[in-house]
């Protein structure tokens, strides 16, 4: 499971719903080896809340295709917890040591690989290191976990641990995330309290690894901003080789002195201090990006208040365009508990909160643990705290190890005294096998459907509608509830000139995903192509209703009305022309009303209602209706 999850780190971190199914399969396979276990009563209640919330969320899903992944994903989370409890009951230090080294290796590879292949990875708009995860904060978090995970091996004097620590520190620093830096300080304080002997034992080697990473980072930061690989490679290679040489001969005083002098000189002359100090000096929640997160949280809380049962997996992605308080697009609500509340309702959020609170409270016993267990579970505690205000847990790369940690941290066996035994709830091995079988079957089914849907999308992108139709048809046969599959099938049929079939597929997509504006846009385009202007106008109106803050959506809909108006007038259909003009005026009125709702302190630029197309439309529509 660790090897598979590590590979998945470089496949978008198992972010997409179909990729999450791979992590579910890995979790199910791992849990099959677990014996019967015991859960605490609070854990049993939390799992019951999660399961009931997941089931209730399917009553009115925001997008049926994504929501179908929810039960399978939650089953995978529970299986990860069961596997963690089984390992925690029998070999906790071995499991924790494997987890710590997993973070160390993956964090180092993510940083070094992201720097080495920076020319082949999409740049992040902030100019920070996004590596293969595509999100600098996730790179920073895996770097922090990797740095912590390397500490026991640093303390043991293993030379290969220093490059791993340096790689983790590079990702941590070049992420530029103040939030990750802050929880890094909290984790350092926790380790000083929980494992002072570990800190003393690893301090010299850790100090050298951090110094080398900081020197490399302040030299590399400008090149990372400019995506300049040729400048990055010699910087990182020189720092890495210097650290490895120093560790090999660290018993020689002259080598240590030369390392200190070289590092000090590099730090004094580095060109990237302005970037680092600029990031560090800006208070959290005061810059534009942080201010937007407050808006996401505010809008998400308002939405969750209206969805006590939730709206299925990825509910925020489906609903936020209509729920937004101003014009923004964000696929994530930037809070793991809030995301779970939107997806699986208040019950699901309460279950997750119970597990998270129990995990954090059990960290109080860390002073009696071994070093590997302390750093592994302490790192997961830092991840959990940061996930309160960010979305790392949307990556299976982070979520599944966290749920494994929920099991590994304790349970009834970790509680002292005879009273704890009476509070234990048995979880038989047969129930694990049943749940794993269901999860595996669901993961295979949904993963195959998602894979075929992705092939359909790629075929459309290559201009091959015939292949896209074959893939989308196969996906629809496997997962007929997937709205995205139906949409790609409709798009392929439209390109092949099979209009009625295309409209039927798009109607099905709109039924399964009623909040997706793209489906309405495709239906409107096909209706307009067929000359069904009034139906197309109604679809364009739906498109604008589903994307109320997007000026481009209004412009596209109004331009389509003008085209249809030209054709109606050319054919002499005055009735249709009048109806189209009335529909267009309603669009312009909706644009004006939406503009009036814009908050004065919105972080983004407001809606542009003065475009020439809007002015032309006002004149044209008024002229038609005054005749």
Summarize the structure.
The chain has 627 residues and is mostly helical.
Estimated radius of gyration? 27 Å
Shape: globular
Q: How many distinct helices?
A: 29
**Major β-sheet, in short?**
2 strands, antiparallel
* Total number of strands: 2
Indicate the percent of residues in helices. over 70%
- Percent range for β-strand residues: under 5%
| Poorly predicted sequence stretches spanning 5 or more consecutive residues | none
Description:
This protein is mainly alpha-helical. The chain contains 29 helices and two strands. A two-stranded antiparallel sheet has the order 1-2. The chain is globular.
Output the keywords.
single chain; 627 residues; two-stranded antiparallel sheet; 29 helices; 2 strands; 74% helix
How would you summarize the topology of this molecule?
Elements: H1 2-9, H2 17-31, E1 37-39, H3 41-57, H4 64-67, H5 69-90, H6 92-116, H7 136-149, H8 151-155, H9 161-174, H10 178-194, H11 196-225, H12 229-248, H13 253-269, H14 273-281, H15 288-305, H16 315-323, H17 336-362, H18 371-386, H19 396-408, H20 418-422, E2 425-427, H21 429-461, H22 465-478, H23 483-495, H24 499-512, H25 517-529, H26 533-546, H27 551-570, H28 574-596, H29 612-626
Antiparallel strand pairs: 1-2
């Amino acid at each position: 499971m660790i090897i598979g999850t590590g590979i998945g780190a470089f496949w978008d971190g198992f972010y997409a719903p179909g990729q999450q199914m791979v992590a579910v399969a890995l979790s199910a396979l791992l849990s099959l080896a677990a014996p019967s276990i015991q859960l605490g009563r609070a854990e049993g209640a939390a799992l019951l809340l999660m399961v009931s919330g997941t089931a209730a969320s399917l009553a009115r899903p925001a997008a049926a295709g994504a929501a179908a992944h929810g039960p399978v994903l939650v089953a995978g989370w529970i299986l990860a917890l069961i596997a963690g409890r089984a390992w925690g009951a029998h070999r906790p230090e071995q499991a924790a040591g494997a987890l710590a080294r997993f973070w160390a290796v993956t964090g180092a590879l993510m940083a070094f690989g992201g720097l080495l292949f920076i020319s082949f990875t999409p740049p992040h708009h902030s100019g920070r290191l996004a590596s293969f995860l595509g999100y600098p904060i996730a790179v920073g978090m895996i770097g922090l976990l990797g740095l912590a995970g390397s500490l026991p091996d640093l303390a043991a004097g293993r030379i290969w641990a220093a490059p791993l620590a340096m790689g983790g520190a590079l990702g941590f620093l070049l992420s530029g995330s103040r939030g990750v830096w802050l929880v890094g300080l909290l984790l350092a304080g926790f380790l000083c309290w929980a494992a002072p002997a570990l800190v003393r034992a690893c301090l010299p080697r850790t100090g050298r690894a951090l110094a080398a990473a900081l020197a490399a980072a302040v030299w590399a930061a400008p090149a990372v901003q400019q995506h300049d690989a040729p400048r990055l490679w010699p910087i990182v290679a020189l720092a890495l080789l210097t650290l490895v040489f120093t560790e090999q001969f660290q018993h020689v005083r002259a080598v240590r002195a030369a390392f200190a002098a070289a590092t000090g000189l590099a730090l004094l002359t580095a060109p990237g201090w302005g970037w680092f100090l600029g990031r560090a000096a800006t208070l959290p929640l005061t810059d534009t990006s942080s201010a937007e997160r407050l808006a996401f949280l505010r809008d998400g809380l308002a939405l969750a208040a209206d969805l006590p049962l939730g709206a299925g997996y990825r509910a925020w992605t489906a609903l936020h365009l209509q729920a937004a308080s101003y014009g923004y697009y964000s696929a994530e609500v930037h809070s793991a508990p809030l995301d779970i509340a939107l997806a699986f309702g208040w019950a699901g959020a309460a279950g997750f909160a119970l597990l998270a609170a129990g995990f954090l409270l059990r960290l109080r016993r860390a002073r009696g643990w071994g070093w590997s267990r302390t750093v592994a579970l302490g790192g997961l505690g830092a991840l959990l705290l940061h996930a309160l205000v960010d979305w790392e847990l949307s990556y299976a790369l982070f979520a599944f190890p966290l749920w494994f940690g929920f099991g590994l941290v304790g349970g009834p066996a970790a509680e002292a005294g005879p009273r704890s035994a009476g509070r234990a709830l048995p979880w038989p091995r047969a129930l694990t096998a049943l749940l794993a079988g269901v999860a595996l079957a669901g993961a295979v089914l949904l993963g195959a459907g998602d894979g075929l849907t992705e092939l359909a999308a790629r075929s459309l992108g290559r201009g091959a509608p015939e292949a896209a139709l074959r893939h989308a048809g196969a996906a629809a046969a496997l997962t007929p509830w997937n709205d995205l599959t139906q949409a790609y099938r409709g798009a392929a049929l439209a390109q092949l000139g099979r209009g009625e079939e295309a409209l039927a597929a798009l109607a099905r997509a709109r039924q399964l995903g009623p909040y997706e504006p793209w489906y309405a846009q495709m239906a409107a385009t096909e209706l307009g192509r067929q000359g069904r202007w009034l139906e197309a106008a109604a679809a364009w109106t739906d498109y604008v209703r589903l994307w109320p803050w997007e000026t481009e959506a209004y412009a596209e809909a109004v331009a389509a009305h003008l085209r249809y108006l030209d054709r109606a007038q050319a054919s002499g259909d005055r009735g249709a022309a009048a109806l189209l003009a009335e529909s267009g005026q309603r669009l312009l009125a909706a644009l004006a009303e939406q503009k009036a709702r814009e908050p004065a302190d919105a972080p983004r630029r407001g809606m542009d209602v003065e475009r020439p197309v809007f002015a032309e439309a006002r004149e044209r529509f008024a002229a038609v209706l005054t005749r």
